[in-house]
Amino acid sequence: MAKLTIRDLNVRGKRVFLRVDYNVPLVEKDGQMVITDDTRIRETLPTLRFLIEQGGRLILTAHLGRPKGQRESSMSLRPVAGRLADLLGCPVNFADDCVGEKVESLAGELPPGGVLLLENVRYHQAEEKNDPAFAGQLARLADVYVNDAFGAAHRAHASTEGVARIVAARGGQCAAGLLMERELKFLGDELENPARPFVVILGGAKVSDKIKVIDRLLEKADTILIGGAMAYTFRLAHGEKVGKSLVEPDHTGTALAAEEKAKKLGVNFQLPTDTVIATPVDTGKVNKKGRPVFEFVDVRTTKTGIPDDAEGFSIGEETAANYARIIHGAKTILWNGPMGMFEDARFAPGTNAVAQAVAEATQKNGAKSIIGGGDSVKAINNINLGDQVTFMSTGGGASLEFLEGAVLPGVAALSDK
Ligand code: ADP
Ligand code: MG
């Protein structure tokens, strides 16, 4: 069912309770917390400007970090208010709590087009418990509810779910912001009836993380291309040697079942035909978490099994070329999960080649390309191709759950059109 969006609302003079994702990275500098990346704040500007132009009175709620119900000064949203004011070019009031009489009167005093940012909603333990009384307190600030924090929509918290239910029960409207609207469009509607061929690229570390997505997309895709460490569990399931690679022996059955389903549904299901491997050597050092640090030497490519002393780190050149050829023929592309441990430059070429092919298919062939998953987005941004794909999800865990076909509580709570 399609959800109401802010384009469907009349917010003039109304208090718009707007849940945003301002979970930005901060570092301490001379005793002050400084924002190191304001992408998430910038991304909300279209929604804010739209609502300001319509004469809404905006009350913004967000969380920052994991203060676990305590007032942690290092996790205050105050620095965000300053940055937001700069970016919007208008004053942004800040309330040092998110509920209570003082906050209610600040919200009440807001003029049409005015903006008030509330302090970290997770300073209250009741937020993550979705406590009805706390949600009720939040709802006292709201005539209309808007959610633009897709990345938090998979959690049923007071600010993402409870408050919306209360507003709706009073007969108020609950709508998606512009960011949320795009996420629902590209991860939802566009994949429901994709232009064909529909090619799905799946990688990342674990089969167990992605099996639900594989299972659902097998029913929609024409081709599935597998990469990342996930491929080695498939290899192991076929009785091949995987050396010291990251595998999940408990999930070989899952892997075989997926291949079986692909065969039954006539999906072209491809595994890598070559692998970039290296030999791990214990450095004798330990990392911050107390785990041994390895160095990877003797980087090479194998087309057969992975030797006992070696570990697989990426798809090889042959696989990358084959995948690129298939991607060039696609009309819809969904990519979730890098093709290898791209954080190390020696293992990045396979992932980069796939990213390049996705960008080319989008730019030259008019394919629609949709990227889900935090690390996949990072991989694309690493080589500055972010603006050459159709859509990059901001959702992380929420994107994955949505792709699995799960109903996200923060989405379910929005009003139907
Ligand atoms: P996304 O965030 O896009 O959903 P995942 O979190 O599932 O992706 O997987 C990304 C991680 O998987 C990366 O940190 C990457 O280093 C790791 N990875 C991929 N291939 C391998 C491999 N062959 N060996 C070890 N780690 C890998
Ligand atoms: Mg990840």
Question: Summary?
Answer:
The protein has 417 residues and is α/β, with parallel strands linked by helices.
Chain-wise SSE layout:
Elements: E1 15-19, E2 26-29, E3 32-35, H1 39-43, H2 45-53, E4 57-61, H3 78-88, E5 93-95, H4 101-109, E6 115-118, H5 125-128, H6 132-139, E7 144-147, H7 158-169, E8 174-176, H8 178-192, E9 198-202, H9 207-217, E10 223-226, H10 230-237, H11 252-265, E11 268-270, E12 275-286, E13 292-302, E14 311-315, H12 317-328, E15 332-336, H13 349-365, E16 368-372, H14 374-382, E17 391-392, H15 397-403, H16 409-412
Parallel strand pairs: 1-4, 1-7, 4-6, 5-6, 7-8, 9-10, 9-15, 10-11, 15-16, 16-17
Antiparallel strand pairs: 2-3, 12-13, 12-14
Bound molecules: adenosine-5'-diphosphate and magnesium ion (MG).
Adenosine-5'-diphosphate binds at residues 204-205, 209, 228-229, 246, 312-313, 336-338, 340-341, 343, 373-376.
Can you give keywords for this protein?
417 residues, alpha/beta, Rossmann fold, six-stranded parallel sheet, globular, binds adenosine-5'-diphosphate, binds magnesium ion
Q: Bound small molecules, which ones?
A: adenosine-5'-diphosphate, magnesium ion
* Shape verdict: globular
Summed over residues and divided by their number, the pLDDT gives a mean of 96
Strand content: 15-25%
Q: What is the H level of CATH, i.e. the homologous superfamily of the largest domain?
A: Phosphoglycerate kinase, N-terminal domain
Provide the CATH architecture of the largest domain: 3-Layer(aba) Sandwich
Strand order of the largest sheet: 5-6-4-1-7-8
Major sheet summary line: 6 strands, parallel
